[in-house]
Every structure is written in structure tokens, then in C-alpha cells.
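User: I'm preparing a small set of examples for a lab meeting where we compare how different chains pack in three dimensions. I only have the primary sequence for this one, and I'd like the structure in C-alpha cell form so I can line it up with the others. Please keep the answer compact; I'll paste it straight into my notes.
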Amino acid sequence: MPELSFNKNTDKQETAKVESALLYAVWVSPSAICGQKADFEVGTSFVGFGAPVEVTVRIDGGKKIGTVKGVMRCDRFRDEIAIPEDLDPEDELYFEVKLSKNGLKGESDRIPVAPPVVIKNLKWSASEARRGDVLTLSAEVEKGIGPGEEVLVTIREYDAGGVHDKIVELPAVVKDSKIELQWEYEYHEDTDEIPTKEEKEEYGGSYNPPEYFFTVNYGGAVFGKKQESKLLVFKDWLDIVLADENGQPVADAKYTLYLADGSTRDGTLDAEGRARETDIPPGAVRVEFPEFEVIDPFEGEE
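Assistant: Understood. Below is the C-alpha cell output for the 302-residue chain.
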């Protein structure tokens, strides 16, 4: 970054002139895989928010591959470009960056072109998960990755708005043209924070339980970003215990559950005043015992 110095009086308004600069132009992807997209980033200083930027990708030697245009935001521009399928794996790619209004230009580093990679049939071993379940994640390698090579599997929680939270990253090794690993499911958040159907309807939405998908990353190419693995749905469970004012279990009492998705479920306690409800939608649950007036021991306390 350019050095700045200011040695005038600070007791009155002064004007300081700063110069814009291109700090870096780099590939984020380690290689350009034919048929996939490669990420790049440009960093600047003092070019102004919204300054136009143009990136032209070329084969080492000059042939143009494509151009991406955009604007700088907070002195940073990050985007991606599609890599043609017919490039020679012996080639290398670089990009030229130009900020015309600032009079700046420069070149990036070089990355190698890699043969096409195809990963398909991403899938979970089950469509639903419960706490402690061990799930198998699998995918098939059709081309481009040899036996013993490593990929990175990322599990994300699905978000309808597109902001998919990363849950965990797991390395996996390709064997017999397959990717396979196991993951033990555990929900680490507070289910009380999952909005109920009624709460969602206040804002025009609908209840949706936590759902998950996974992607496979090889050399910067990410497969499964459109939830090709299908969505894994979290199902929860609930233990119910009812005792009288003396602490004795209330046997055979009937109950009704009011679940987060708006549905209800009826049941009966056992001889010890207990019941377990499985495969319920996660979130806040209200339990009522129609035959009894249940007193909250903490009612009235601050």
C-alpha cells in the first residue's frame, strides 16, 4: 500500500491528496479446470467505491478467453469466469485488470489449466437425520480425478435466501472412482430459536426445519452447489414426564403436543408417567394434559 504522511497543522482544515493504486490481482482457484469456473480477486486502494473494473482472461501467449466487468466495492473485486472445455492442459492462464477511470492496470499470476472433472450422484444415505445418527455421504467420479487424490466435502445448512451456513469440512480420498465418508449428525443450536409456523406466518413465511446439503471441492471446482445431494431433514425427539404435587408419577395421563410446524399429536403416558415422542419437527413444543391442571412451579417468580 502506498505510504501516506501528513505533517501540516491539525488545528485547521487541510486538504491531503491521495493516489489510487492497484495492490494485487490474483487467482483464488489453484487451477483452471476445463468446463468449470475459476475465481479471481483484485485489490486496490483509494480507487473510489463503485469504480469500474474490467478483467480479461488470457492463455499464456495472449489468446483471449473471456472478459468480466464489474465495480470495486470497499477496494475489492471478486468474481469468477467460465473455463472452456477445449483448452489444452499444457496451457496456463492469467488475467489483465484495468481500472480505466483511475488509470490503473496490471496482470495476475499464472495458474495451470487442468483436464475436465465430472463428479455426479451426490447423495445422503438417508433423507432424515436424528441426533447421533451416522450418515454416509457419497458421490461418483466420472472423470478427472485419480485414485488416492483428495477432495474436500463441505456440509452446509440450507437457507432459502442463499446464505448457506457452513457446518463442517471433511477431507475424503477417491477410491474406485467413488467418494465416500461418514458423518455423525448433531444439532448444535437451540431448537427454541427455530421460528414456529405461527411466527413465520406473521412475516409471510412458512415453517421449515433445518435442512442440509453437501458439496465436493476439487482444485477450486465445487460440485453440488445447487443441492444436487438433495436436502437432509432434521427430525427431533421429546421426553415427557408428569408428576403430581408430591412428586409422584401420573400414570396413563393423556396429552396433546402442539408442534412447531402447526400440527398436533396425541398420546398417553405410561405407568411411570413418562412418554417419548420421536420424529417430531424441531422447534418450540407446547404440551397440554386435558384431564389435569398443570401448575408451573416457577410461576410468579422473577
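A couple of notes for your slides: The CA atoms of residues 48 and 75 lie 7 Å apart. The helical segments are 197-201.

User: Perfect, thanks.
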